[in-house]
Amino acid sequence: MSYTALSQHFEQLHHLQHLGAICGWDQATMMPAGGNEARAEALSTLAVLCHQQLQDPRLSDWFDAAGQESLDREHSVSLAEMRRQWRDATLLPADLVRAMSLAGSRCEHAWRSLRPANDWAGYLPLFEEVLNLSRQAASARAEALGLSRYDSLLEQYEPGMRSARLDTLFDDLKSWLPGLITRVQDKQRDEPLLLPQGPFATEQQRALGLEVMALLGFDFEHGRLDVSAHPFCGGVSEDVRLTTRYNEQDVAQALMGIIHETGHARYEQGLPGRWRRLPAGQARSMGVHESQSLFFEMQLARHPAFIARLAPLLERHFGAQPAFSPDNLARFYTRVTPGLIRVDADEVTYPAHIMLRYEIERDLIEGKMEARDLPERWDQLMQRYLGLSTKGNYKDGCLQDIHWTDGSFGYFPSYTLGAIYAAQQAAAMQQQQGPLEQLIGTQLPTVFEWLQQHIWQHGSLLETDHLIRQACGQPLDAAVFRQHLQQRYLADAVYA
Amino acid sequence: MSYTALSQHFEQLHHLQHLGAICGWDQATMMPAGGNEARAEALSTLAVLCHQQLQDPRLSDWFDAAGQESLDREHSVSLAEMRRQWRDATLLPADLVRAMSLAGSRCEHAWRSLRPANDWAGYLPLFEEVLNLSRQAASARAEALGLSRYDSLLEQYEPGMRSARLDTLFDDLKSWLPGLITRVQDKQRDEPLLLPQGPFATEQQRALGLEVMALLGFDFEHGRLDVSAHPFCGGVSEDVRLTTRYNEQDVAQALMGIIHETGHARYEQGLPGRWRRLPAGQARSMGVHESQSLFFEMQLARHPAFIARLAPLLERHFGAQPAFSPDNLARFYTRVTPGLIRVDADEVTYPAHIMLRYEIERDLIEGKMEARDLPERWDQLMQRYLGLSTKGNYKDGCLQDIHWTDGSFGYFPSYTLGAIYAAQQAAAMQQQQGPLEQLIGTQLPTVFEWLQQHIWQHGSLLETDHLIRQACGQPLDAAVFRQHLQQRYLADAVYA
């Protein structure tokens, strides 16, 4: 059976990707610096092999024949997901793939030193090359898929999402978010706030992190926690590798990072076991993935009921201090401050950072603006959405993110889609299971069961809209996200 | 150029093996238990790919054509080493390779519980299957290589070594080793000995281990030290991963284990950089590899001059105690006690364990004895060489080693070849550079430079006999090993 042959072929690809995921994790966490060159060579050979696996000339016939075979619904979906990965890998000419990889590596590598040096002029020619190749790729993908250029890139991260829908979404956000930010700042201006006083020893932070991961149901038989310069959730779904970094002056950063990555991890650990080796068993999209990390970090961990559980743990690990009172911690974890850096942004200002990036990357790919116009456009939008200037400050402006350096255009919207999906999931859960206050306070397993049943166990077996509608009653709905922000940040009681 | 094509092909193979080595290390050190099934699947897919890489139909033509190309000496050797690996991978029919892998996995897996249960009867049928397949493999290899059956297996681990030569070697050892063991025991019987008193905290043992690794020139930019149930030296030569295990009651085990593995590691780290990705740049043989670990553990670390340097480190990490006096430590680290377990054996009795295994595995493969006769033969030889009985005690007798469970016949002689080569290297070094006492006491870098120059930098560019003769003046010479044992264990002064 051709479907069987395809499944075996994609399982083999999954095994190769497993080796790449573990060696990639090792590179970021365990590898001594001198091992890097050999590792990079080995991983690049693996990338070529994985690409070859998807270029196998037998695949075309197998897909044709499997299309004629009688398959039940799940296997039909599995076939479609295999076909999507295959199509994605074969859309671009090999020369272009190689050129993109080369230009991306070069630009990303240079960016690591050009950003701290605030060197926009040095960065521009490298970035222009990346953008030029990304536009070529977008054109080729667009033609083959019958999509607009930007949509053809978006499709890689968020299948089914289109910029027409994102335009509407972000227009909506633009209409209310800047005003909401101002009102929240006005409200918070007079609220008392104590900052937790360090130092917070790394070993204690790690112990606390492990305890919170256990509380959040992380399965330590199928994963671990380590340290890396840039936190991530890697490994494979049977063995999920989280990382964080510790700052002994800051108790919030590592802990919230761990909680965020634990959300990603539980999604991976909860994917449907029998589909694990095939595309159908993998995470649905980047937006859905981010919805799980943000459900854990924002909906759950910054909820006053969770903070009430966190406070005694902080006291136990670091000793009592006034800043650890639940009231103060709740204010601490929900303080809103417009800033220049996306990864440091709070829950309320974060979407403004994404709106800005979305507009710019869409216009860059569609040819409506040029690379050289980036700093000015960035500054203009930063002023408009957050009232801050980045004039001359490239490193905290348009040079701050890694995404565009290697041509990952179309990724940014996932963050805000995730935040909205997470708010919808929290609202639906409350409607079905009772107040979140109570679920978080005394019935955490019910929270995780809901996510397992409505999100995790479906892998890629449902389209995103279908998945979200089935779980929450509606597909993407920014109004629920707005209600969440209004209720958490503008209602009278801190505990609202 | 076909030689270039071959080199690229083998470099690619090397990259795949890199991924396997790191993921194998991870499996033993970092992986949570629940990740094992997925990891085993991924590694088995990789093994198939590596095998396919060596079965590539283009290789035959490339080797034919490359044989006609004009190559300098080093590239000719490189070609020969590639050809040897290729030949080794293509000697056996695929069915037999699969059957061996399956039977070996099954037997090894069962052995892990049958050994503690002392269950010889349960083990025998599984072992018979492994032996039967190993004999078939030996026959096929023997015919293709024009060697005896056992020699064709030996060739995998110790290229160029033959059983006729090993027979002579072990006959020689048999003539003097049992008598020497008795005399050493007589001499040591009345020597005072204090045992170091624990507990020795794991963290302190690790700190001491790292300090000793640094003293021994381990390059931490290209390697690391971790913990695993069974210590090994893994990873890749650019990133060598040592492991050990800590016993808080025993200060000797982990430390000497670390020193042993550091010997393996420095060989790997010292291999010729420009040949690293090709067979010619890999370690010469298992015997030469073991000569480096045993040079470090036996020739160097148990030398009184090294123990004099170790004593203050032990005091610093664990506090002073009478057992840490250099005299006592020297006696402690050279105490000879015949025992049943090979891996616990001292320097003097160790070769007796190997003589026994060599005779048995040679006769098993040549069809001169059957699997069912193993316990009796084991007991008989154990009585003869070490005066100990293993009657009815299978778990500390013929069930103690992992090697035969998966069909690794022909490996055991490497241990004793390594011990002999190490003694020859120490003797040659003394002759060329001055007394070991002085080199170890004040000129350790000279020791490592000698090994770098005479052993490490040659990779597989010289045949073993050539390598050893060039370094030590003679190929394999057991007389030097005998002199070393006599001088260290029977001369009057403890410090001799």
Q: In summary, what is this structure?
A:
With 496 residues, chain A is mostly helical.
Question: Could you explain how this protein is built, in words?
Answer:
The structure is a homodimer of 496-residue chains. Chain A has helices spanning 2-29, 36-55, 58-68, 73-90, 94-114, 120-145, 149-157, 163-188, 202-215, 251-270, 286-300, 304-318, 326-332, 350-365, 374-386, 413-433, 436-442, 444-454, 464-472, 478-490, and strands at 223-227, 233-236, 239-244. Chain A has a three-stranded mixed β-sheet, with helices on both faces. In chain A, a hairpin with a 2-residue loop joins strand 2 (233-236) and strand 3 (239-244). The model of chain A has no long low-confidence stretch (mean pLDDT 96). Chain A is mostly helical and 496 residues long. The radius of gyration of chain A is 23 Å and the shape is globular. At the A-B interface, helix 1 and helix 2 of A face helix 1 and helix 2 of B.
Question: Could you outline the blueprint of secondary structure elements for this entry?
Answer:
The structure is a homodimer of 496-residue chains.
Chain A: H1 2-29, H2 36-55, H3 58-68, H4 73-90, H5 94-114, H6 120-145, H7 149-157, H8 163-188, H9 202-215, E1 223-227, E2 233-236, E3 239-244, H10 251-270, H11 286-300, H12 304-318, H13 326-332, H14 350-365, H15 374-386, H16 413-433, H17 436-442, H18 444-454, H19 464-472, H20 478-490
Parallel strand pairs in A: 1-3
Antiparallel strand pairs in A: 2-3
Helix pairs in contact in A: 1-2, 1-3, 5-6, 6-7, 8-14, 8-20, 9-10, 9-12, 10-11, 11-16, 12-13, 12-17, 14-15, 14-16, 16-20, 17-18
